[in-house]
Structure formats: structure tokens, C-alpha cells
Design brief:
alpha/beta; Aspartate Aminotransferase, domain 1; 2 domains; 7-stranded mixed sheet; 14 helices
Length: 412
Amino acid sequence: MSPTKIQASSQLANVRYEIRGPLARRAAELEKAGHEIIKLNIGNPGAFGFRAPETMRLAMIENLRDADPYCHQKGIFSAREAVVMQQQSRGIMDANAEDVFIGNGVSEMILFSLRALLNQGDEVLVPSPDYPLWTAATHLADGTAVHYPCPPENNWLPDLDALARLLTPRTRAMVIISPNNPTGAVYPREVLAKMVAIAESHDLVIFSDEIYDQMTYEGAEYTPVATLARHTLCGTFSGLSKVYRACGFRVGWLSFSGEKDHAREYLMGLDTIASLRLCSNVVGQWAVQTALGGYQSIRDLVRPGGRLYQTRAAILDGCKRSNYLSVIPPRGAMYAFVRVDTSKLPNFDDQKFALDLLERKHVLVAPGTSFNVPYRDHFRITLLPDAETMVQVFGRMEELLDDYAAETGAKT
């Protein structure tokens, strides 16, 4: 008799993370067959030759002997204190090391923060497009992700009237992502102030994902949400993965500020969850103080002449030259959310395009629908390859789109 089939948990029914899903698995198969794949689906700086600052590696080496034992479940004190000092330098004076949690990347802290907050059916306002882990983590915590639109017609900024209409008695939290993944939008201070006012008037927890905080272009101004939130609990997420090009260190943090007295039970619950995994990676935590207190080399990469800036310019030029593609210039982060002109390619489908681009041109992108949007005419690419590689990518994409046009008889 064959054994009973083992089913996946029903909690995974609405969980999607296509950035590392079937397309990425197919890319791995093609690589094993000997093909070189240009992977634009994920923001992984080290895979494109970026390196964490040497001072961070030295800090870990020098403290390696102190990394053998478990540390406190919230993280080593020097790392948490470094986060506090950075927050205070930005005008967030109520930051405290006791309210900083270090995790195995921001991803773990997103999962923990929602698991500690939500009961079945509780709702979380999540932007659309979103970084899909926020939606997935909400579902894993038995909550409901309610997506507020950030439409391209509004330069990817939130539609605040639509957001306000989505509030219900079950709404517990609002997620803000600026600088934004996947669109590259950087929310103006006045937009953030209005979002904070909505959250404060409805006693919502604010979760502000600021992992790309120093990654801005052409004068875009990053505003820490915690500088605006005084009358509700505000959790700020950041880490070493992006700005410091250290994804593999797996070090992220969550720092709480604003009104905290009424949230002590929640913070204790989060502490309990952190305790269950004993502690996060200790070795990487020794790099935090050096990273935040040292020379901010990211500025060299995002200014004119810097590698990220130049690749961004190549993407803008590629879209300008294309018969089919357009993009709202990303003002921050390391991504572009590219649009396909469906008036020229009326049967365009982002999932099919991504698979065809992979199979026929050996370029891996993330379909726009991966980011919880209702339209199928976008895809996301990362700015991490050098400009020359990106020129090749746009050549391959144009060839494929020309093939589509020829197949349908569309005029370009």
C-alpha cells in the first residue's frame, strides 16, 4: 500500500514568491545544461561583482572569537547601539537599543513582526506593486493583505484616497516601502506625512521598509518615516544586504520608535519569537557598527559616473530607443519596473514573456504580476549588471519583442 500523500500546509495556499519560483528553477536547469544566464530577477549585488567594504570583513575577522556563543535574542549590543546612533543622527531621538531587533536579514524580521502582531483575519495595508514577501508573510501569519494602489499614472506614488477607503475595523498595520522595490519610487515627505496621519488616526502600526535608504538618484530625497511618526508605533526595517552589498551576511534589523507604551505586550511577543530561534547570525552582526559608522561608499555608486547610476542611465536609454518599452525613471533602490506597450503588442503577457526571454535569450526577469498587481504589462529588472551588459540585455529583449510583433502582424 502506498503511503498517504503529504500535503503542503494550507497556510501556503496564498503564498507566492515568484522571484525565486519556477522561472528561477528553470534558469538553474539551463545553467546546468551549460547556458550562461543573465539574472536580473533578484537584487543580489555579490553575484555581479559588488563587494562589501573591506572594513566590514575586517571587523568580523577581528571579533570572530566572540562569535562562537549565542548572543542575546535581540542581537549584540554594539550592533543595536549602532542602529540607534544612526536613527538619532536622522532626528529619531526616541530610538532605544532595547527596541532594536537584529535578524537574519530583513526578511526574517518581516516574518517575525507580522507573526507577533496578527490574529486570524486581521488586515495589513500593503502597497501594490509590493515586495512580495510582505504579502506572503501576512498570509503566513493568518492575516489578510489588502493592497493599496500605487499606480504608474501617479509615478508609482500611493493613491491616498484609495488607501483611506480600504480601512476597516480589522486593519492593524500599514506597510510603506520607500525607496521602493520594485518601482524605484522615492516618496516625497508630504506624501509620507499624509500616510502617517492616516495610520495615527486609526491606531495602525507603521512598518517602514527602508532597506534602500541611501540608494537614491539625481537629488531624490529619502525621508525616514520615523521622523514623522510620533503618535503610533513605527517599525523601521533596514540591514546590510543592499546599501552595504552584503546579502550573504544575513544581517537586518527592526527598530521601533514613536508611541511605544501601549505596544509593550506586542514587543514582548516579538521578543518571544526572536527567542525561539535563539539568536541571529552572530558573525555578521560584528560588521554593523563599522558599516553604519564608516565611510558610506554607496554614494560613489549612485552619483553620476558610479556604476549603479550608469546602469540606470543605460536602462533609460534602452527604453527610449525601444519600439515597445517605457519606464518611469527609478529615483531610488536598485530596480526598474518596465512597461510594454500593449497597443503594439495587444496579446502581451508578462509571464509568457519572462519564460520566452529565459528560454530563447537566456535573460531572467521578474514578471510584473509577481509583485501583486492586476495588470500584466510590466516586468522588473535589477540595476546591478554593468551598463555594457544592460545594453546587450535590451538588444535581446528587443529581438524577442520584434518576434512577437512579427507573429501577430503588429505595427511598430
